[in-house]
Write a structure and sequence with these properties.
The strands form 4 sheets. Strands 2-7-6-5-4 form a 5-stranded mixed sheet. Strands 9-8-12-11-10 form a 5-stranded antiparallel sheet, sandwiched between helices. Strands 14-15-13-16-17 form a 5-stranded mixed sheet. β6, α3 and β7 form a beta-alpha-beta unit. It is elongated. The two termini are 69 Å apart. It has 555 residues and is α+β, with helices and mostly antiparallel strands. Helix content is 44%, strand content 15%.
């Protein structure tokens, strides 16, 4: 049995009001009913349909003209608009449709579009087909709400309109994250009370509601989607289906957001890696444009950080989260720009931010991970200086390792020789010092003796005790070192040259492990192995951890 315009006008449950319907118009056959939310949705309209305007469409004169042309093109059976649709273009829309003999109906606020669609389909379809078309229309309407901005709010708004109800999203603690309409969230949340059920039907103080649990996934916590109304028998098969589809779309949108965020981090990591490899003779302008597109403007202080972890991984703590993710979380939205690159030797960060913002973020990182060391380079004003600031950060890490208890060291704290090394350049200084330190590195016993001698501030007796050898043996080794370097280790000039050579060589070492340090004792036994390494975070004489004696653990 076909459905006509007269059928829907005279249907007592719908209470539609005809605005420009003639006697002839009442006989027009309605093939089906279709919701239109945006102008772009009109491409899906079919012949002889009842076109339902949901929301504020059309908005402009251009949209109005396009809408009328499409309605005439498909020879629409009628156009129905909600009672609340009151834009300035309303009179013109009614007039234009009347001139083209397209009847216009007004839908009261108490009448749901879902009921109107259901009525049309009942005249000409089997019960199964009616339900299918109704659900399909609902799903299409919800999918149309997906967009680049405020996706959750848009989906909940569409859900509320389709169900003629209010909808919202709450956190596990009951905090309302998004709300479309008025709901007694506190009362409803008390009814949920930490339930692990995926779906709950609630009845509180005259409110009937459906709550759907969105499980924790990716970076999102557990949340509850709630849709409710004061109407009796509100929670039916249509409401359940609409809420479930909405929950699925929110979950999908969350996953897409995470993928987009991961892609953005990958791009930033790649560009930072290129900046770290930038040679002085390379043209930096292309990279400068890319960095600018990522928000690095150099309007605020820009610095490069180098972060590494020492000691064993602590299960169940923040240290279990990859360091790059912790850095992004620590800065949040406070930094003007942030580029993070995970490398085999640690994590490198380029950050543009106010100094107070940077200090607060680094403080959070150090507080949550007691095994973290951070070196920070000088402030820079151009991408060509990124590599220089990174070299500063490597030197700063060396200082943090040397000064026990210092977990953050910056370029601004460099003493004279370290700043000299930073400004001459690690690579150039390493080349100059190769003749000094190269032959010594080939003899581990001599290198061990030299390091102990310098760490003991040129005190032979103290260095010998640290090495657990006779002081005459150490003097013999120092004599051999002096023959190699061609000067006395009592001469200020030779001391400065050797110290700078050691620093340059250590900074160039990509592995950046802790310098060999012979321990006083390990479990009562004397440790004489030059490869024994003590954690810079441990106090002198303390037995090392069983994780490799404080070696750097890559993420």
């Amino acid at each position: 049995m076909p459905c006509t315009v007269s059928d829907v006008i005279t249907h007592p449950a719908l209470q539609l009001r005809p605005l420009n319907v003639s006697a002839a118009d009442r006989k027009r056959v309605i093939a089906s009913a279709q919701i239109v939310v945006e102008v772009e949705d009109m491409d899906g309209l079919g012949q002889h349909e009842l076109v339902l305007i949901l929301g504020s469409m059309p908005r402009s004169a251009e949209d109005l003209e396009k809408f009328v042309q499409k309605v005439v093109e498909i020879d629409a059976a009628a156009v129905a608009m909600p009672e609340s649709y009151r834009p300035e273009s309303r009179p013109r829309l009614i007039q234009d449709l009347a001139e083209r003999q397209i009847p216009v109906l007004e839908v009261p606020q108490t009448t749901r579009f879902a009921d109107l669609i259901d009525t049309v389909n009942r005249f000409q379809s089997s019960p199964d087909a009616v339900r299918f078309n109704k659900m399909l229309t609902m799903q299409q309407s919800l999918v149309a709400a997906l967009g680049p901005h405020e996706t959750v709010s848009a989906l909940l708004g569409r859900l509320a309109k389709l169900c003629g109800a209010a909808a919202g999203m709450t956190s596990p603690l009951g905090d309302v994250e998004v709300s479309e309409g008025v709901l007694p969230f506190k009362l409803l949340r008390d009814e949920i009370a930490g339930s692990s059920f995926p779906e709950l039907e609630l009845n509180v103080s005259g409110w009937n509601a459906l709550a759907i649990r969105l499980e924790e996934s990716l970076a999102k916590p557990v949340r509850w989607l709630i849709v409710g109304s004061r109407r009796e028998q509100f929670v039916n098969s249509f409401v359940r289906a609409a809420a479930r589809v909405t929950a699925s779309l929110i979950d999908a949108a969350d996953r897409i957001d995470v993928l987009v965020d991961n892609q953005d981090r990958a791009v930033r990591s790649s560009i930072l890696s290129q900046l770290l490899e930038l040679e002085p003779h390379d043209n930096p302008e292309t990279l400068a444009e890319r960095v600018s597109a990522l928000g690095v403007s150099f309007a605020r202080e820009v610095r490069v950080l180098d972060l590494v972890r020492f000691g064993p991984e602590s299960k169940g703590t923040a240290a279990a989260v990859p360091l790059a993710e912790r850095v992004v979380k620590a800065f949040g939205q406070d930094a003007d720009a942030l580029l993070v690159s995970h490398r085999a030797t640690g994590t490198v960060v380029l950050v543009e931010a106010d100094s107070k913002v940077r200090e607060a973020a680094l403080g959070r990182l150090l507080n949550e991970d007691k095994g973290l060391l951070i070196g920070m380079g000088r402030a820079i004003g151009h991408v060509r200086d990124v590599r220089t600031s990174h070299h500063d950060a490597i030197l700063a890490l060396q200082q943090a390792r040397r000064l026990r208890g210092a977990r953050l060291f910056t370029y601004d704290e460099f003493e004279f020789t370290t700043r000299l090394l930073a400004h001459v350049g690690i690579e150039r200084m390493a080349e100059w010092s190769a003749g000094i330190i190269g032959p010594i590195k080939s003899k581990p016993i001599l290198l061990e003796a030299l390091q102990a001698f310098f760490e003991a501030e040129l005190d032979v007796m103290a260095a010998a005790r640290a090495l657990h050898i006779h002081h005459n043996s150490l003097r013999y080794r120092i004599q051999k070192i002096e023959e190699i370097v061609g000067g006395s280790l009592r001469s200020p000039e030779t001391i400065a040259a050797v110290q700078l050579a050691l620093m340059a060589e250590g900074a160039r070492d990509d592995s950046r492990t802790v310098r060999p340090r012979v321990l006083e004792a390990v479990g009562g036994a004397v440790a004489r192995n030059a490869a024994a390494v003590e954690s810079p975070l441990e106090s002198p004489g303390r037995a090392p951890s069983p994780s490799g004696l404080g070696a750097v653990l890559p993420e």
